[in-house]
Amino acid sequence: MLSHTQLSSAMQRAITLAQRGPSDDINPQVGCVIIDGAGSIVAEGYHAGSGSDHAEVAALKNLDPQLNPVALTAVVTLEPCNHTGTTPPCVVALHTSGIGTIVYGQPDLGQHSSGGATELFARGHRVVGGVESEATARLLRGWHQRTEQTRGRVIAKWAQSLDGRLAAADGSSQWITGAKARRHVHLQRALADIVVTTSATVAADNPALTARDEHGDLLVAPQDQPLPVIFGTSDVDNNAAIHQHPALAWRGFDRAPQFSGRDLGSQLTALAEYVDGAPRVLLEAGPRFTTAVLAEQLANELLIYTAPLLLGGPHQAVGELGVPTLTDAHKLTFSSIHRLEADTVSTLRKDH
Ligand SMILES: NC(=O)c1ccc[n+]([C@@H]2O[C@H](COP(=O)([O-])OP(=O)(O)OC[C@H]3O[C@@H](n4cnc5c(N)ncnc54)[C@H](OP(=O)(O)O)[C@@H]3O)[C@@H](O)[C@H]2O)c1
Predict the structure, then answer these.
(1) How far away, in angstroms, is 286 Cα from ligand 1 center?
(2) Protein residue closest via CA to atom 14 of ligand 1
């Protein structure tokens, strides 16, 4: 596997290439390099503006067909697109090429084009997102503003049984979903700027909240790991794993920041002080906190992992939302649904 330094330097090159494209186009500036197992660049490409090849396709056209694609890594500044616009989806081009690993900087927030990384992950590629996250976010800032895409989002994530339970009647819950779904969670962590959990979940599970690979190693470098933040008034053990999170030392914290107020809306807004721009916040909490966030309609997106199990019983994923009748239901739209071995991952957005 390539080192974080090799991936960062390839991403820096991809950013430089991206800047050759027009900065005021309807499409974003995107660059792509393809590197071999030693980290050497074997092909490059960038997007030269609407109607021209996307960066991934441009790089693939420059690739020597004699090279073994499985050993190669495509490093691209933006998540590969998953839809047919004026050109076919990059996801299909990358999958057809047989390239083993896809690494990207920023998630695609487009209503129709997002979900490419999960599609590639589901099809068996190794996928890493969030590399050089600050630099790639800066690259896209103008495009996000032009297209009114808000990068700052609150994403509520949970893993449940088919009947919406987080645990069996005796409280056993590890693990409801399988290994592939759990690996996908780590990809989502790497894409987040901040991961929020609670004092109760830290006490129950002692989560590390790092983005890790299948070997337990950091999936992305400490500077690209999400900052862990605790919500809740209860004291959190000084020895809790969360306080060892590498993003903390990188940013000069000696322990995870803790928010102990009860005004969720203003506390979630206050998280912006930790990042340059609006943060992408992943919530990894239990049902009481998640329900409170949902009841106040503070989540922009839901990320739900569902296992084909029926558990019944009291441990519901979502509690009382204050919905008296069907017409008052919180309305959402499915952005994507993917199979991850036996499980599914669904992404839903709030209807406006
Ligand atoms: N399946 C999954 O995806 C998943 C994910 C995470 C956790 N879990 C499970 O969830 C269980 C914990 O769930 P839980 O419901 O007991 O705890 P929780 O929802 O994780 O956290 C509840 C705590 O959040 C804090 N909090 C801060 N603001 C709040 C607000 N506005 N409303 C409610 N709480 C607020 C409070 O801490 P203070 O009391 O300290 O003020 C409260 O006690 C664990 O067993 C864990 O394994 C499951």
Answers:
(1) 4
(2) 286
Q: Which residues does 269 contact at the CB level (< 8 Å), separation at least 6?
A: none
- For tokens 């590890």, what's the residue? 174
- CATH 3.40.430.10 spans which residues of the chain? 153-350
What pTM was computed for the model?
A: 0.96
Q: How far is CA 310 from the centre of its chain?
A: 28
Distance in angstroms (rounded) separating the CA atoms of residues 89 and 91: 5
pLDDT tens across the length of the chain (352 residues): 899 999 999 999 999 999 999 999 999 999 999 999 999 999 999 999 999 999 999 999 999 999 999 999 999 999 999 887 777 799 999 999 999 999 999 999 887 788 899 999 999 999 999 999 999 999 999 999 888 888 779 999 999 999 999 999 999 999 999 999 999 999 999 999 999 999 999 999 999 999 999 999 999 999 999 999 999 999 999 999 999 999 999 999 999 999 999 899 999 999 999 998 789 999 999 999 999 999 999 999 999 999 999 999 999 999 999 999 999 999 999 999 999 999 999 999 987 6
Q: Give the list of residues 6+ apart from residue 75 with CB closer than 8 angstroms, or none.
A: 7, 10, 11, 13, 14, 32, 33, 34, 35, 103, 104, 131
Ligand 1 neighbours by CB, cut-off 6 Å:
158-159, 166, 173, 198-201, 204-205, 231-234, 262, 264, 284-289, 292
Probe target for ligand 1 pocket from 289, 302, 318, with the most ligand atoms within 8 Å of CB:
289
Q: Which fold has domain 153-350?
A: Dihydrofolate Reductase, subunit A (3.40.430)
Ligand 1 centre from 276 Cα, in Å? 28
Stretch(es) of the chain classified as CATH 3.40.140.10: 4-146
Is residue 119 part of the annotated active site? The answer reads: no
Nearest atom in ligand 1 to the alpha carbon of residue 296 is 31
Distance of CA 50 to the CA centre of its chain: 26
